[in-house]
Amino acid sequence: MAKYYITTPIYYVNDHPHLGHMYTTVAADVLARYQRLQGDDVFFLTGVDEHGQKVQEAAEKKGLKPIELADAVVERYQQLWPKLSISHTDFIRTSEDRHKQVVQTLWKQLEQKGAIYKGVYEDWYCVPCETYWTQTQLEENDCCPDCHRAVQKVKEESYFFRLSDYQQPLLDYINENLDFIAPVSRRNEVISFIESGLRDLSISRTTFSWGVPVPGDEKHVIYVWIDALSNYLSALGYPDADNMDFWPASVHLVGKDILRFHAIYWPCILMAAGLPLPKRVFAHGWWTVDGKKMSKSLGNALQPDDLLKNWEGDVLRYFLLREVPFGSDGDFSESALKMRYNSELANDIGNLLNRSLSMLQKYKGGILGKVTSHELDVELCQHMDKMPVSVQQAMQGQAFHQALEAINSLVRHGNRYVEQSAPWKLAKEDHIERLDTVLYHLIDLLRLTAFYLSPFMPNKAEAMMAQIMNTHVELQTFNLAEHGHRGNLTAGHECGKPHPLFPRMI
Ligand code: ME8
């Protein structure tokens, strides 16, 4: 069984979960579910990032200890993920002992390899971004080039990681492994950043205490990004637990704002520790709301629980991955969501399911007949054969919108096929063999649709399959190689009665 390891970023606990966190996690869940259908042994990791100055300050403002703040936010995440059918294998917290031990082990390994040295750090620091900047990188008014807020001057004793030693090895790696950073536009950005010169990285602080202490020099706390990135190893029980079989990660899914940490710092740390690099880092785009960036200060960050009041989790999952190509930015609006729901889910998929099962009930008592001829159905069958191939290609490149478009296109063909073959006429004129053939193809097409939609809308797909198979079917236990192709139903099978899955929204 192939091992497949997929991760989301671990989310900061100084903020509540919002649409952006939901987006990465849903995308990772869709991939995890798809790979399980491919027969892979999947480890899907998500969790929270609890340390750092930002979290310490947020807790102080609320009069809480950092761990109390973290506990409250963790609960929000843990209540949210089931509502969105997130099927993670593990949820890591950086305050856990299993994590802190791994961060310190990794630190000692880097030290033994000579990749860490002590020096004096003098630079500008942006607290909200937890990023250090040189004078030349700052904006003209001396603000952070990422978030445009004021930065602080810092001068302190610090440990450094020899990032500059890995500039050429990393460039070579990126050029030899074209799939490593995606999409291509982001890869090019990373390459030009590296080519502009990598400076050694300050990796410890003495100005706050909420973090993992440097082994043997406890007044230093390990830089939050080293701490955070190590979560991908600590969840596997690094260095020697059985789950290390899952390393290197198949894909780290991240937002574009944190690509540099994942595509530059992390691979260099791994190289220094002598570990293989992740196979892929995919950076997705950002959602705006009414054209504006979501932010705490504007108070426009969309809360998943508010969206879940109006929309089922499956529908939100579908919309997020259908509306915008993964990798591009997009604007969220409920009117766009409603439009997609009514046109693609209610009118196309829901309608095809309903009319096909109704006709099967009405004309054949729900019992499937035999396919007797293919001649009139060559085109439809070609589409049914093509869809799984297109979905596979799209999923390999994390092009979720294309995978959904391939499924939707087959459904549109199905609806056209109903009009063209007019089963009501075939029934009236007693063309039973032809009627059986047409109804078989329609139900088979719907079965395929349910299979391939299931990573995106696990509950809706199971409800769809339950109507087709007349019994509950645990879709995640199926294998696409065995069941994900045309002609898998047997004549004589009794389908269930239709129940509307996607009632129109007015
Ligand atoms: O960055 N649209 O955590 P985080 C899309 N702890 N994605 C968005 C978004 C938006 N409007 N807003 C945020 C961290 N995100 C670190 C990660 S990993 C070792 C450490 C995404 O809670 C953002 O791009 O600030 C990022 O991928 C994720 O939410 C976590 O953000």
Protein traits:
six-stranded parallel sheet, 16 strands, binds ligand ME8, 506 residues, four-stranded antiparallel sheet, elongated, 18 helices, alpha/beta, Isoleucyl-tRNA Synthetase, Domain 1
Report on this structure:
With 506 residues, the chain is of the alpha/beta class. It has a domain of 151 residues: Orthogonal Bundle (Isoleucyl-tRNA Synthetase, Domain 1). It has 18 helices and 16 strands. The strands form 4 sheets. Strands 3-2-1-12-13-7 form a 6-stranded parallel β-sheet, with helices on both faces. A 4-stranded antiparallel β-sheet has the order 5-4-6-8, with helices on one face. A 3-stranded antiparallel β-sheet has the order 9-11-10. Helix 1 links the parallel strand 1 and strand 2. Helix 11 packs across helix 12. The radius of gyration is 26 Å and the shape is elongated. It starts with a strand and ends in a 23-residue tail after the last helix. The structure holds ligand ME8. Ligand ME8 binds next to strand 1, helix 1, helix 7 and strand 12.
